[in-house]
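Data deposition worksheet. Section B asks for the primary sequence of the deposited chain exactly as it was used as input, without tags or linkers unless they were present during the calculation. Section C holds the resulting structure in token form. Section D is free text for depositor observations; keep each observation to a single sentence. Incomplete worksheets are returned to the depositor.
Section A, Depositor: J.P.
Section B:
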Amino acid sequence: MSFQSNRREFIRSAALTGIGVIAADRVLAQDKSPNERVNFGCIGVGGKGDSDSSDAARLGNIVAICDVDENTLAKAAQKYPGAKQYTDYRKMLDEMGKSIDAVTVSTPDHNHGPAAAMAMHMGKHTFCQKPLTHSLWEARQLQEIARKTKVATQMGNQGTSDPGTRKNAYLVKSGVLGKVSEIHVWTNRPIWPQGGSRPEPQPVPSYLHWDTWIGPAPDRPYGPGYHTFAWRGWWDFGTGALGDMACHTMNLPYMALDLRNPTSVQATTGGHNKDSYPHWSVITYEFPATASRPGLKMFWYDGGKLPPKELFKGGKFEDLVIDGKIPDSGSLIIGDKDQLYTPGDYGGGGRFIHTDPTPVDFPVSPGHFEEFILACKGGAPAMSNFPGYSGPLTETVLLGNLAVWADGKKIEWDAKNLRAKNAPEVDIIVKPRLQHGYKI
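Section C:
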């Protein structure tokens, strides 16, 4: 694409200075020439892919859509009648590559890495839903590909752009909690069947391209427990409760305290058959000290497990924890001066328990997808870009599943080399074997 230089500089300035959402939207809305709008190919247009493609249509042009479910594809085609339709993203990129500037990837987790990698290798700006990938190795690879190709990237953890989340994170960065020693993060997931046996095989529905849905995963017969939602509970396709929500609920402490490269991780679970994730898990991460904070521990809880109730007493907890009941998702960051409690998934609300900290400056986002569009047009990288933010966040998140697989064994982690120093048996989870010719 070519853009007028004065407009490029204005957009770049908007991204760098955190210009407000209204002004940024106005800039983008003034794109009347088709040549100045980002042309999108949307991979996966149902579920979260519906809202992702809506964002792409709001701020750009959709020229191609892809979904393995022909019913979903037909519904999207009614919204985007000018878009060419595909059931295989590889064919879409091969045939439409010269017409596409950027892609959205909104598929089940196991297809994220191959789809995003193919698009980036072709020079396409890439927006990918969370978690960024299905495996640790894929997350590292996408970071390297993004650095090499220099395309704009962003992961779909929308809370990253929320002003409340950013405000809380930058307050913690400023030191209002003192020395942080513990973090507790919990979720109400899973809300899909998990921890059981495979469904009985059934004929593949006529509208579903099952082989393409399987993609890089090992073959298995179609059953009613996979498409369209319950795939999250299967090791071959999803990343369980942790992968579904930690890129949201863990995002605030990650942003505030740079929770990269844990040195160890250990899980207790309800037990699993290494095919479906367990009903519940509690995971302990250990992080080394950095230049800005001491070493600390983070505890993750899912499947109905919650932090100890005694942590939620005193100060302003009294009017936040009603009748001693902890909301079923949230985070608690504990320092030696104060604590930050945020109920819900995105870290933008909540309260400092013992003080009312002085406000601090933080970078204001024009909006999550707006950040991506600005980056595509030469502006600053979106905060949740692959190499600088969302790739390392995904590595931290997925390391917890390494511990779930080991089920009780403490994993000593070598982050630099993506290696469990004391557990070679988890190598297959670090880097699963991609099947059927798919590659990163």
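Section D:
Residues 314 and 353 are 8 Å apart (CA to CA).
The first helix runs from residue 5 to 17.
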